[in-house]
Amino acid sequence: MQVITPQLATPLLRGSALTIGAYDGVHLGHQHVLAALRHIAVEQDLEFVVVTFDRHPLSLLRPNDAPLQLTDLPTKLELLAACGVQTTCVVPFTPERAVESAEQFIDELLIRQLRVSTIMVGENFRFGHDRRGDVAMLAAAGQDHGFTVTGIPLRDDDDGVISSTRIRGLVAHGDVEGASRLLGRPFSVVGTVVHGDGRGGPELGFPTANLHLEQGLAQPGDGIYAAWAYLADGSSAMAAVSIGRRPTFYEDAAPLIEAHLLDFAGDLYGLELKLSFVARLRGEERYDTIDALIEQIARDVHNTRIALEKS
Known about the structure:
By secondary structure, the protein is α/β, with parallel strands linked by helices. The protein is 31% helix and 28% strand.
C-alpha cells in the first residue's frame, strides 16, 4: 500500500474508488465499508483509496474534548493495508485545513488529485469547516463532476451501532472481550518498554515490562488482564498484565501498564512491545501485606495461562 499526503501527491493515473473518515480502530463497521468499496474498485478497475487524517480534528480544535484513539497512525495504516487498500492519503489536520470549506476539499483533493470516480462513506459522514459537508453535498458535487456517491447504513449488532466511540467505552471499562468482538481482532496497545520501580523482580519475584504509550491512545481500565505479548523480533509470549495505580504501595500514583511475560527471560528496555488483550481476570485491589500480593500474582499468572491456552 502506498501512503501519500496532499502536499506530496501527484494526481493518480487512473480514477479512484475512495472513502473518507477517521477510521480509528478499523473496526467491523469500517471493514464492512472497505469490503464493499474494494469490490467496486476491482469491478471498475479503479484505485482503492482511503482518505484519512493524521490526528483527530478535535485534538487541534478542542484538545480537552479529543477522544482517546484506538490505534496510532502506523497501526491504522497496517490495518488498512490488510483490508486491501491500495493507497491511503493521510491529510495533515492543520489550522488551515480546519477552516477549509467542504467545496474546497472536494475540488482540490478528491477531484484534482485523487480523480475520484466513486465515493462510499457512512450515511452519517460529515466533513469540512463547521462540518457542513455531508452525503447530500457529496452527491450534488458528484452530479456536477461525474462521480457517484453512496451513503452506506452503519453496521450494528444487538447492542447498537458498531462505532469507535462505543469501542472506546468498552475499553475504558475493561471489557476487552467486547471491544475485540467489535474490532474483529483482539484490542491491542503498542508502546515502548521503560524503567519502572524495579520492584517486580527483586521484591515480588515477577519481573515486569513497564509500557509507555504514545499520548492520546486508549488503554483498558484498571485491572488484571491476560494478554499476548508480541516482541520486536516477531516472537510472542503469554503475559499477565496489571493496569492501575499500585494501591498496595501508593496512595495516589499515575496509572501504569505492567506486563509479566510468562516463561521469558531477556532485556526489553527501550524496545517496542505490543499487548493483545484476551480477557480481564479481575479488578485492581490493595493488599495488606507483600506476601498476600505475591500469592495473588501467582494466581493471576496461573489464570493467565489458562485463559490464553483457551484462546
